[in-house]
User: What shape does this take?
Amino acid sequence: MKKISYYLAFSLLIIFSACGGGTSEKEGEKTTDENKKAGSVEEAVEEVGGKLTDALNKIKADRKKKGDTLAIPYKELQKYLPKELKGYTLAGEMKGQQMNMQGMSFSRAEASYQKGDDRLDVSLNDYNQAFGLLQMLTMAWSMGISEENDNGKSGVITLAGHKGWEEYSKSGKEAKVLLAINERFFIEARAENQSDTEFLKSVVQSIDLKELEKK
Assistant: This one.
């Protein structure tokens, strides 16, 4: 986790360097200010990284006490994915995979849907005993990032009380919605020929999130 902190610190330092461009009369004073700023950012990131590591260790310990150390088998995960979605029908059989090894357990269920020529893909991932990987995927969400330009928009969202992420390409009309559940499950939905991300938000929420929250 400490490596992750360094990567995030490095990214933040780049942002501050790009946006700095101060107007100090003396270059030496400018450099000193930038160094102080960089140092404070790195310290803040290290503090966040430490708290995150502690939180993940607690999650791991709690799950171990319950005997809950393996990811749900992918065949079981597939049962959470809908058979059809508002005009979309299942295209072929659902797929999935599972990996268990010492200190790590991960599983994934996937389904593809079709409506005419339009495609919709949904996946449900269980990062039990691999939640460090999930944190790598979702770390930036806590910063509340959002962006929009002529090409599209992206940003942090909240669905059913859980943090997520949305992306939309205006030119390609492609949408993506991600959602993380209780530091364990990760849902991803992608669709073509969309006017925004609203339909995909409803797709993600059609999965039994309440049941996943109990796991």
Residues 2-66 form one domain.
